[in-house]
Amino acid sequence: MTSKSAAAAAQATVHGYPRQGQGRELKKAIEGYWKGRVTAGALRDTAAALRRTNWQQLAGAGVHEVPTGDFSFYDHVLDTSVMVGAIPARHRAAVDADALDGYFAMARGTQEVAPLEMTKWFDTNYHYLVPELGPDTVFTADSAKQVAELKEALALGLTARPVLVGPVTYLLLAKPAPGVAAGFEPLTLLDRLLPVYAEVLADLRAAGAEWVQLDEPALVQDRSPAELNAAARAYRDLGGLTDRPRLLVASYFDRLGEALPVLAKAPVEGLALDFTGPAAANLGDLAAAGGLPGKRLVAGVVNGRNVWINDFEKSLSTLGTLLGLAGRVDVAPSCSLLHVPLDAAAERDTDPQIARWLAFARQKTAEVVTLARGLAQGPDTIAAALAANRADLASRAGSAITRDPAVRARAAAVTGADVRRSQPYEQRAAAQRAHLGLPLLPVTTIGSFPQTTELRTARADLRSGRIGTEAYEERIKAEIREVLAFQEKAGIDVLVHGEPERNDMVQYFAEQLTGYLATQHGWVQSYGTRYVRPPILAGDISRPEPMTVRWTRYAQSVAGKPVKGMLTGPVTMLAWSFVRDDQPLGDTARQVALALRDEVADLEAAGTSVIQVDEPALRETLPLRAAGRAAYLAWATEAFRLSTAGVRPDTQIHTHMCYAEFGDILRAIDDLDADVISLEAARSHMQVATELATAGYPREVGPGVYDIHSPRVPGADEAAALLRKGLEAIPGERLWVNPDCGLKTRGWPEVRASLENLVTAAREVRAELPGGAS
Predict the structure, then answer these.
(1) Which residues form the Cobalamin-independent methionine synthase MetE N-terminal domain (predicted)?
(2) How far is Cα 90 from Cα 93, in angstroms, rounded to an integer?
């Protein structure tokens, strides 16, 4: 196909779409089902209606080929485990008894069985359920979901493309099942898995699929020759099938690198590549690999992970170059639009100037359609759109909203002394022990307590004017007193005020910092039914006034034990926001760090002796390729220290991380120079404690012994067993007892029981230690 005919064939498509609905109907239906208020049939009807709405919106916008199979009740990787029959033995009975309840049991656990481990989807804030595999795993095909959703779309008269997690990525994301040797490599199961994928592909072909997309984002990471050979074998075998649809192998989030020529040579009909951010390097790599002659290229030129409008002229230039490298070029976002909110037009309160700069899923879909038309029919056919786009980009570049000279001058004046504590850890630890007087194995929580219906109602009533500020604040004070009284009665050693006044650990601070924009309807799925509204970082950052001091001071005034000050760290403020893309991330992080440094100083001045600065996103923001990691970790750890290094030696700095693989950032964890770090460990059975010990980590550690992402209540014996396992790696004088994460999403009955069990476990294990008897 010539370049001219490739341009004429250009069409618009997307890899995936937000699942929740405009009013988060899916969340409400699923949680209603869990509570017994919604039937399974009603839940499925809601899901079908949401899928139908999504497809019709996409088709109505001009998308030629809609995705199917990307919709999920909880997680698309969990859906893949069901599709290939990789059901853990502990969940088999539940799945056999009721497929839907068994599915949710794998995701959330039950009182009898633990859920699958959960961790971050590459460097996003989306969480997936980690497949558990072993040498005895037997795969069996179950394509019912994928086939049914394809048929739904075809019945609407739409052209549809099923989207599946590819076999190589699925295995690379998996981990050894409990009881399987840690050295087991799930990728060794590839030859066992490929026939199952072949069966699913045949089923989809029989159901009417012309194309099937196989997502292989794991291949954008640094991969060994053996892993690249496995990818080549996988697509040689799948491409060699006779009874199959045409195959589109997709990657996103970074450049494919060494995997690009492997996939380019594979006997598949198309590739989907990301051409945004660091993945822009795919353009040169594709040319060096000889292009994709005679094949389809789906070009991801619209950033599917951020909310800023596309630069049409730049994208058309990239697309024009790609025309000479492929048989057919289609236009798409860089990845699934799952990672952005649904519709910027719903944000009625946004500054009109800033609104011109924003594109959520619906707007990005329109951008893709516009670019496809410009590519197919020539730029003159989209002249008005190009002119408006140029004006909007110029508006942002020249706006005073984005630049504050005072903030920039302060950031430029930071010195090495600003990012170093005044004393080394050993001296600080002695001062803190004397000041705080804590027992061995001190018990604490991560920060938040349940956000009850009454609290949310009070917040909504305040916003609507149904109650005044004074009544609202009395409600918050009553909640703080209740949370503190429970903790003291339960025997918790370092208290938290429970954060009843906070809506979200990032949004709460963003609403009080200049340079941030909060949304009203910008919901994005984090995991399962957990949705967040990431704020938008539009300009330079500063803190006009204290953000947390008042409520922390109040909590201290009514508590008889230390109360932690609770802040969200600079890297997480960036990672869980839609960050500005017009300056280096490190520069933005330094601005946020300086704002937090002011807050830390004010907390300390108010008498707060323990201050926690959470950085759960430190690992997830790690560049996917090793070449970029050293530079990232340098500015990320410096930003944390800039936030915290100004305190006295006897002020104890905590940090917290959760649901990520920590093994490859252990040096960075040390570089934070926090006095205490708490990390997720319950689902991974204390793996991180062993990793920290092996790395020689010298400070205090709180590996979580209560998995708060499951409704199960861990028994005291279970928590004690995890503590003893932690003590095999971390000495008692440096070990803390805490949940994996905050308790905001849990209910009070399970929280009370779980924390009481934690205290019981801590006392039991403490009594076993020299000098630990109370």
Answers:
(1) 12-322
(2) 7
